[in-house]
Amino acid sequence: MIIAPDPDAPGLSQPVTGVDESGAPVTLPVVTEKPLTLYLNRQEIVTSMTIGDWPAELAVGYFLNQNMLHDDDVITGIDHDDDLGVVIVRTERETDFEAKMKRRIRTSGCAEGTAYGDMMERFGEIRLDPDMRLRASQLVPLSRAINTTPSLYLSAGAIHGCVLCDANRPLVYMEDIGRHNAVDKIAGWMFLNGVAPDDKIFYTTGRLTTEMVIKTVQMRIPILVSRSGFTNQAVALAREAGLTLIGRAKGKRFIALSGEHRIIFDGDRTGDDIADTVSAQRAHNTSWRGDGGAR
Fold first, then answer.
1. Three-state SS annotation for 37-52
2. Which of 66, 86, 119, 295 is the most core-located residue (most Cβ within 10 A)?
3. Residue 193, domain extent
4. Distance CA 108, CA 210 (A)
5. 60 C-beta neighbours (distance < 10 Å), count
6. Half-sphere exposure (Cβ direction) of 204: Cα atoms closer than 13 Å
7. Residue 14 within a domain
8. What pLDDT is attached to residue 122?
């Protein structure tokens, strides 16, 4: 793995004392939460609550995923002041997002993730690599490698993880209190290091929402995997974009609701069996009618 979490890094967590269910004293690590204000050139854009690591990558990734930075933009400097909690990203292109700031909407992401109405500006124009393939058997060792990596999630909890992978191994593992921040850190890292997305897999510990699908598509990564479940709008957007969307990935089991053509079914079950499961799940989802969240 190129970048892995460091749960012992200074400032990411701190010991807190309390008592357990029997009244016995306990001390446990609790993740740090601090504000970080992001500027693009001279304009303040947003303040995010974050654990505080990888601030430059977080800022660049956020601006990319909000369509405030373009793929061909040249970044002339990134300034970070930890004491003030500020990151300033400077570009050759002059930017002015005063009007865009008035059109922001809240998303379903944890820690009150924020997106803008025109996040969808380029969504329909993006074409994901149709030739990328994922063997079903690869998900087991990939998930095991991610889930056994030392992390703040394992040591302290209350945090989300996102992982950039190739077909055989995790490459970059980022964590934060909001999964949207973890996604943005990876997007920023890829941009700053010139990493191609077409042959990559994106793994998240959280649920598969519209924000996760939109950001994965904007990053041009063709496969998104989670051990959690889906929202209906996330599935609709994934199908529109041709994104391979895999959820409930635990052990050898998973459900794919979009982009099944990229999956090579080489596990214990046959490809026909899994395809039948996917078709049945789709039929169930189509016929399901909710009433206040209950059947």
1. EEEECCEEEEEEEECC
2. 66
3. 134-287
4. 8
5. 27
6. 31
7. no
8. 78
Q: How many domains does the chain have?
A: 2
Cα 71 from chain centroid (whole Å): 19
Pairing of β 134-135 and β 263-264: parallel
Asked whether 41 and 89 are in contact (CB, 8 A), the reply is: yes
For 223, which DSSP code? E
Residue 212 DSSP one-character state: H
What per-residue confidence (pLDDT) applies to 259?
97
Residue 246 lies in a domain: yes
Read off the amino acid at residue 196. A
Sheet arrangement for strand 43-50: 43-50, 34-40, 86-91, 75-81
CB 170 within 8 Å of CB 204: no
Residue with tokens 């964590």: 175
- pLDDT of 137-182, one tens digit each? 999 999 999 999 999 988 888 899 999 999 889 999 999 998 899 9
